[in-house]
Amino acid sequence: MANKERNFSFTERMSEHEALMWNIEKDPWLNPSGAAVSILDKPVDMELLKQQIRYGVSRIPRLYQRVVPGFGRLSTPAWMADPEFDFDYHVRQASLPSPGTPRQLLDLVAKLYQEPFDRTRPLWRFVAIDGLEGGGGALWTITHHVISDGIGQLRMAELYQQASRDEPARPEVDLKAIIADSLATSGVKEAGGDFAGGLADNAGRSLSHLIRRQAGIVRRLAGEIVLWPADPKRAVESLNDVLEAVTAAFDQISGSSTEVPGGSPLWKTRSRHRHLEHVRVPLDGLKAAAKSLGGSVNDGFLVGLVEGSVRYHSRLNTEVDAFNTSFVLSTRNESSGSGNAFTPVPVQLPGTQASFADRMAEVRRIVGEAKEQAVNDGGISGLSGLVNLLPTSVVTSTARARSAKLDFVTSNLRGASFTLYCAGAEVLANVAMGPVAGTAANITALSYDGHFDIGLFIDPSAIEDPTAYRDCIDAAFTDFVASHGSALGGAAPAKKRQAQNKSGRKAAAKKKPTKQSKASKKGSATRKKPVKKKASKKRPAKKATAKKRTAAKSA
């Protein structure tokens, strides 16, 4: 990592999509920020960490820039260097009280997440945490979604992570000089942002910007209007198309649709409270299990989530016809820059009892059709400009109503396939905290060093027993890997226990041998043709309460 750095490019203004997220956040229920906690084998070297982060800030302008409002709704917000940038405001330290359990860590970072950003400063924070039992440490990071999506944040993290514990530190940088140079050359001025050049001048520039960004829409609309006098029916149809486009944009804001029935009858209440849980799955086992049924890792991810959600409802004697959910479709490529390049895709997945094979077939069909539709529609970016012209109160109220219909939203990120280090500490696990934003839960997976770490960021007013829900999710993935994984899938739990012990979770790991008799036999490397054991797929629902996995319980 030290020998190869990515080039980071950012525009002077937010994209339409980013501006939409910025405006929506005026309703705190719709907070779009993404965060993560890295669990470390020891506390970071704080001075080394600061040196690494200062270098990262020097390479990523967004980290020393603040948002400057546009001219009304005629132009999107702009970015400018913060002349009062305070590095120590963004990089902090915290200590867990004794005994420093993994549960205490997850509770702490959930509280940190709920502290709102100061919208007059750069939109990120790091908190180095010590006091974990067993001598461990952690690093919590949060970045506003207008800076970058999850993939972009992983790329940015490479600037303060290392491939070895003793990798040379990044060079020292003069942030004050870098910021001063940026201010001197920026076209965005501090005194009032877009108003800096005078009202008339900036109104003209904003109108010009609006015309450029909506030129295609204007040309198409003009062509339509010319045809309306000769064909009144066409005018009505065109107006209906516009209304449908705006409705589709709102659906994509939240990944929901009022036309989709179903949804959990238990997860209707919403709040601003947050609760974090963690489930760890062996990546090779998940890959093998999904592949044996013709699916991808992401398909297997959705299969496990739906199966676990079904089991949770079965515990409470509640039936669900289908779960309203969404997944993130990345539109990123090497020329996408370092900001946001994604669109949420709403889907409805059956919530009835089913075998893993049948569930996989349904997931593949439904997700495949949804992806194709999203690509054909052009994603959210083309519609965000229309929505941004609406009053903020209309946008936020509509987005909240739509997101409230979602049971959970998902995202699957691909992290490093090897061990990483941060300021002298080994990274044992990464737990993502995706934006809940008015849904019942955001469930984000991040693969790392042979593991598939799933962060369950939950609204506890919606999912009233987060611990039970985590147990059901963990049991579902364990049974999926055991019944359909290869020899790699059966061997992975031992590696999982080693990682748990290493991160200070020895007590929880001791419970595992008493809970694996049937599952171990079922997923053992010595079993022949585990793929054909379809008759046993419904049995995991009976064992859900007994199979509380240790990774979920601890971190």
Account of the 3D structure:
Helix 10 crosses helix 11 (297-315) and helix 11 (297-315) packs across helix 12. The chain has 20 helices and 14 strands. With 555 residues, the protein is of the alpha+beta class. It has a six-stranded mixed sheet with strand order 4-5-6-1-12-11, sandwiched between helices. A six-stranded mixed sheet has the order 7-14-13-10-8-9, with helices on both faces. The chain has a two-stranded antiparallel ribbon with strand order 2-3. The longest helix has 23 residues, at 232-254. Helix content is 42%, strand content 17%. It has helices at residues 16-24, 46-59, 87-90, 102-113, 150-157, 175-185, 199-213, 215-227, 232-254, 283-292, 297-315, 356-377, 381-388, 392-403, 466-484, 487-502, 506-509, 517-523, 540-543, 550-554; strands spanning 34-40, 65-68, 78-81, 91-95, 124-130, 137-143, 275-282, 322-330, 342-350, 408-414, 421-422, 425-433, 441-448, 451-458.
What is the strand and helix layout of this fold?
Elements: H1 16-24, E1 34-40, H2 46-59, E2 65-68, E3 78-81, H3 87-90, E4 91-95, H4 102-113, E5 124-130, E6 137-143, H5 150-157, H6 175-185, H7 199-213, H8 215-227, H9 232-254, E7 275-282, H10 283-292, H11 297-315, E8 322-330, E9 342-350, H12 356-377, H13 381-388, H14 392-403, E10 408-414, E11 421-422, E12 425-433, E13 441-448, E14 451-458, H15 466-484, H16 487-502, H17 506-509, H18 517-523, H19 540-543, H20 550-554
Parallel strand pairs: 4-5, 8-10, 10-13
Antiparallel strand pairs: 1-6, 1-12, 2-3, 5-6, 7-14, 8-9, 11-12, 13-14
Helix pairs in contact: 1-13, 9-13, 9-14, 10-11, 10-15, 10-16, 11-12, 11-15, 15-18
